[in-house]
Write a structure and sequence with these properties.
about 425 residues, alpha/beta, TIM Barrel, nine-stranded mixed sheet, eight-stranded parallel β-barrel, 13 helices, lyase, Diaminopimelate decarboxylase, EC 4.1.1.20
């Protein structure tokens, strides 16, 4: 997208605003598909938690994607967006058995990641096919908060618990049709990924009726100029060879599944915010925008680096700024960033704002969540309206007379 397009969107729909470029999403989907073209049966299940706007889900469905969900609400959104139940995989963590049964009734693929629930579900519903999430005890990911395959992780059934797992399957006679892992996000070293896949292949040999093996995702995308990313083409070649060899040994053509989220939508997203104040202090120059970690929490939560550009003055002299928000706490998007000279009223563009940005937004400080716009075929389409004060108080119950008598008693005393 061009700066002129983004500035027009900010002017038309106000700011802050999230913008998503459908062309980039499509190209990323095709890139990953082509990387694994040597696999006869490939399934890409888009991770809805990355960006769950129903228009984005409809776009993914139109591309032939499946859907990776982690809550019953995401399952319902997927069905509303047109996904068939059989193309949705449901991988919760720490939810009630009742929620899992609710998802099973909707006909989606169930993925279970702990022995207790596996035994309960298998005892009650032995005929419903179940995938098992394995923890391979492989540390991978760009931040400890998004590394989920290590030994201390709450996710998955430990590979050391395989004998117990097999005993549950034998006693319940349940149908295990898939094996799954997810080691973390921002995986750079594909050798780590390939090592974990070997563990998954060994585990899969214990089950005779598999339909698919799910390798999760976690591909790293570049966050700044010159940044490194996962070489999905090299991974595709090496993992395809390993997968096809395993299928021959297994005696059955299985489906290779992935659950990309960030890889598909991160680079397609732009977050636009207006500069309210440029403040010189004894140590730095602050550029304060009309947003905060209530709209984009990743820099504060994960230390995520989002490139920040001044699209109102792209040719201006570069200076150093600390870009901060309006939340009444430390609320920093980037320290000492080299940005074209900023004036009050300028529009700053935060890159890589498609994944885990709007979906993690909140109403902290009683601020409204921003609007979302889809850039498709050269046109800007509003896909979520900016919240209003009515939205903020919609579900609050104002018990108006609750404290009236107390005030009266205090006044009398």
């Amino acid at each position: 997208m061009k700066n002129a397009d983004l500035l027009k969107i900010a002017k038309t729909y106000g700011n802050p605003v999230y913008v998503y470029d459908s062309e980039k999403i499509i190209s990323q989907f095709n890139r990953l598909t082509n990387a694994f073209k040597g696999v006869k049966r490939l399934r890409l299940n888009y991770a809805a938690k990355a960006l769950s706007n129903i228009s984005i889900l409809r776009l993914m469905n139109s591309l032939g994607s499946g859907l990776d969900t982690v809550s019953i609400q995401e399952v319902q959104l997927g069905l509303m967006a047109g996904f068939k139940p059989e193309s949705i995989i449901y991988t919760p963590n720490g939810v009630s058995l009742e929620e899992i049964e609710e998802a099973a009734k909707l006909g989606v693929q169930i993925n279970i990641d702990n022995l207790s629930v596996l035994e309960q579900f298998g005892s009650k519903h032995p005929d419903i096919p179940v995938c098992i999430r394995i923890n391979p005890h492989v540390m991978a990911g760009g931040n400890s908060n998004i590394s989920v395959g290590h030994i201390d992780s709450k996710f998955g059934i430990s590979i050391h618990q395989i004998p117990h797992l097999l005993r549950i399957v034998e006693l319940t006679q349940m149908n295990i049709n898939g094996i799954h892992m997810h080691t973390g996000s921002d995986i750079l070293d594909i050798d780590v990924f390939l090592y974990a896949s070997e563990i998954l292949f060994e585990t899969a040999k214990n089950f005779k009726n598999l339909d698919f093996i799910d390798f999760g995702s976690g591909f790293k995308v570049p966050y700044k100029e010159g940044d490194i990313e996962t070489n999905v083409e090299e991974l595709g070649k090496k993992l395809t060879d390993k997968f096809n060899t395993f299928c021959k040994e297994y005696g059955k053509e299985l489906t290779l599944a992935f659950e990309p989220g960030k890889f598909l939508v991160s680079e397609a997203g732009y977050f636009l915010a207006k500069v309210n104040v440029v403040k010189q202090t004894t140590s730095t120059v602050f550029a304060s925008v009309d947003s905060g970690f209530n709209h984009l929490i990743r820099p504060m939560l994960y230390g995520a680096n989002h490139t920040i550009e001044n699209i109102s003055n792209p040719q201006g002299r570069e200076r150093y700024y600390s870009v901060v928000g309006y939340i009444c706490e430390t609320d920093t998007f980037g320290n000492n960033r080299r940005i074209n000279e900023i004036s009050e009223g300028d529009i700053l563009c935060f890159k890589n704002a498609g994944a885990y940005c709007f979906t993690m937004a909140s109403n902290y400080n009683s601020r409204f969540r921003p609007s979302e716009v889809l850039w498709h075929d050269g046109k800007a389409l509003l896909i979520r309206e900016r919240e209003s004060f009515d939205d903020l108080v919609r579900n609050q119950v104002d018990v108006k007379n609750l404290f009236t008598s107390e005030k009266a008693e205090i006044a009398v005393k």
